[in-house]
Design goal:
The chain is α/β, with parallel strands linked by helices and 339 residues long. It folds into two domains: 5-109, Immunoglobulin-like (Sandwich); 118-328, Rossmann fold (3-Layer(aba) Sandwich), CATH 3.40.50.1460. The chain has helices at residues 135-156, 173-184, 215-223, 227-230, 247-253, 268-280, 285-294, 300-311; strands spanning 5-11, 23-28, 37-43, 49-53, 60-67, 70-77, 82-88, 91-96, 99-101, 104-105, 108-109, 121-128, 162-167, 191-201, 204-207, 211-214, 233-238, 257-261, 324-328. The strands form five sheets. Strands 12, 13, 14, 15, 16, 17, 18 and 19 form an eight-stranded mixed beta sheet that branches. Strands 3-2-7-8 form a four-stranded antiparallel beta sheet, with no helix packed on it. β5 (60-67) and β6 form a beta hairpin. The longest helix has 22 residues, at 135-156. The relative contact order is 0.10.
């Protein structure tokens, strides 16, 4: 058959947003046993459009029929039946391709929502660890604070429209609520993520200046933010000790997924960059947490922390377990709509 000038446009299910750099294949479906012919392959441009000439192919069908004298075959013209196959965002969608003219077709609509683009997502990182400490403990936690900020800025910064830091006097619960509302109120923002790095105990977080706040109160304060804004809340990654006991409250606030450690969180130097690196490269939240949990498979960091905590007289030296648990939708990715 002569070559066809194929083309069209691939859209997300809002019927407006183009699917960029999608792999598009067009097949001619044979009705007999000759197999389907792939006649086109290409990628969409920045407008979701694709076009090009098909390959030449023989559009004929082999018919087999039996008679008392044996089995015979007959070559007959085939009906032109085209099918698209679109590979985008880790999904493959296929359906009938309606060729309407040169380089034109009925729009192909992917049955998924548009991704959250870099400019449409912002992240908040609250860090407070060294307040009301002194001596070697203060120096240690100041180094941890600096390392946390440097790591998140270098890994998250290139992948978010804005990265907000709440440190020192700004690392209060009130300031966190204000920042969450301020960011979520922006019409251009579709997803708000939270990284939280304070001290923690069972069902408590410590905000500046090292004040213990129950997670029930944290949840109540955040719930005061309008529901329309809280719908944009997406994920919480906590490096607070006993963060697993805080997960239910984060979800109750409106975040769609959250994680936290079983007990004392001691492996941040290896787990934090492992989580962030997997997340910004498109891994799911579950995959990113698994990467964090797998960053120190022999729990060397936890083992090193115990004698140090004993020497400092900590009552939690025997409760070091950095293993993180997940609550909520672990399949969410950095490009996912909060849902």
């Amino acid at each position: 058959m002569s070559r066809l000038a194929l083309g069209g446009k691939v859209l997300y299910n809002d019927m407006q947003t183009p699917v960029v750099n999608a792999r598009v294949q067009i097949y001619d479906l044979d009705q007999g046993g000759n197999g389907n012919d792939k006649i086109y392959e290409g990628r969409t441009n920045s407008n979701g459009e694709f076009s090009g000439l098909s390959q030449e192919w023989v559009d004929r069908n082999t018919i087999r029929f039996s008679t008392p004298f044996g089995t015979f075959t007959q070559e007959v013209p085939d009906i032109l039946a085209l099918e698209f196959r679109v590979d985008a965002d880790g999904r493959v969608h296929k359906g009938p391709y309606f060729h309407t003219g040169n380089n034109a077709s009925v729009p192909i609509v992917m049955p998924v929502t548009p991704p959250v683009l870099k400019a449409q997502r912002e992240v908040i990182h609250l860090i407070t660890l060294s307040e009301e400490m002194d001596g070697a403990s203060k120096q240690f936690y100041e180094a941890v604070e600096a390392g946390a900020a440097l790591t998140s800025n270098s890994l998250l910064g290139p992948h978010y429209g804005n990265t907000h830091y709440l440190q020192e006097q700004q690392a209060t619960l009130s300031a966190l609520c204000q920042k969450l509302e301020q960011v979520a109120a922006k019409p251009s923002v579709k997803a708000v993520d939270l990284i939280i790095s304070p001290h923690g105990l069972d069902d408590e977080l410590y905000f500046y200046p090292n004040d213990a706040v129950s997670m029930a109160l944290v949840a109540d304060k955040i719930k005061a933010i309008p529901v329309a804004y809280r719908r944009k809340f997406r994920m919480v990654f906590s490096t607070a000790c006993f963060g697993a006991s805080h997960i239910d409250e984060w979800l109750a606030c409106g975040f769609k997924v959250a994680s936290g450690s079983e007990q004392v969180y001691a492996d941040s130097v290896v787990s934090f960059p492992a989580f962030l690196g997997t997340w910004v490269m498109g891994g799911s939240f579950k995959e990113a947490v698994n990467a964090a949990n797998g960053a120190d498979p022999f729990r060397i960091q936890d083992g090193l922390a115990k004698p140090v905590m004993e020497a400092m007289g900590s009552p939690y030296a025997n409760q070091v377990n950095s293993t993180r648990r997940i609550g909520g939708s672990g399949n969410l990715r950095i490009s996912s709509i909060p849902a």
